[in-house]
Design a protein that fits this description.
globular; 187 residues; binds 5-O-phosphono-beta-D-ribofuranosylamine; 6 helices; 23% strand
Length: 187
């Protein structure tokens, strides 16, 4: 199997990054993680890149020219697929255009419900019965690209934000690799 050269974009903890690195070590998994981009110099997730010897780059998205820098490194590492994993920054139009249907994201809600930030607060406030996560393609509109996989759980009446987050992340670690396998099984 020829694996897709993949870049993972992160900003924080990196539990999805860690999970995808582990899965990608399986010879049947469609991705090879060749690069990690973080827009947060202190992102804990960078440690997983270090541990597994994966090149990583810090991009300061607060300054001009950040987009060119990202495109430069994607080209340098011949990246053909991108996974956003807790990347707290809107992807530029140019990048989306260059990587049509080749950028995916994981979001901690059952999209189209609860797009954007502070998901768990809003889920609890609106007294939802179910929560979960969604893996979707990235397009110009926030959290709105076509959905690939969704995983659901029922909310218990004692669940607080922290518990919801824990339950959601547990499902995310199943959903993200499953979505990737689904995409490449089709093509
Ligand atoms: C995940 O909950 C994901 O849904 C959201 O950001 C979080 C990232 O977590 N987009 P981690 O950094 O992968 O642990």
């Amino acid at each position: 199997m020829v694996k897709k050269k993949t870049c993972i974009f992160i900003s924080g903890q990196g539990s999805n990054l860690k999970n995808l690195i582990n899965r990608s070590r399986d010879s049947n998994f469609p991705l090879k993680i060749c690069l990690v981009i973080s827009n947060n110099r202190d992102a804990k997730g960078i440690n997983y890149a270090k541990k597994f010897g994966i090149p990583y780059i810090f991009i300061n998205t607060k300054i001009k020219n950040d987009e060119n820098k990202i495109l430069f490194y994607l080209k340098k590492y011949q990246i053909s697929f991108i996974c956003l994993a807790g990347y707290m920054k809107i992807i530029s139009k140019k990048l989306i255009k260059d990587y049509q249907k080749k950028i995916i994201n994981i979001h901690p809600s059952l999209l189209p419900k609860f797009k954007g930030l502070n998901t768990f607060t809003r889920i609890l406030k609106s007294r939802e019965i179910k929560a979960g996560c969604t893996v979707h393609f990235v397009n110009e509109k926030l959290d709105s690209g076509s959905r690939i996989t969704q995983k659901i759980f029922f909310i218990n009446k004692n669940d607080n934000e922290e518990i919801l987050k824990r339950k959601t992340q547990k499902l995310e670690h199943k959903a993200y690799p499953e979505a990737i396998i689904k995409i490449f099984r089709k093509s």
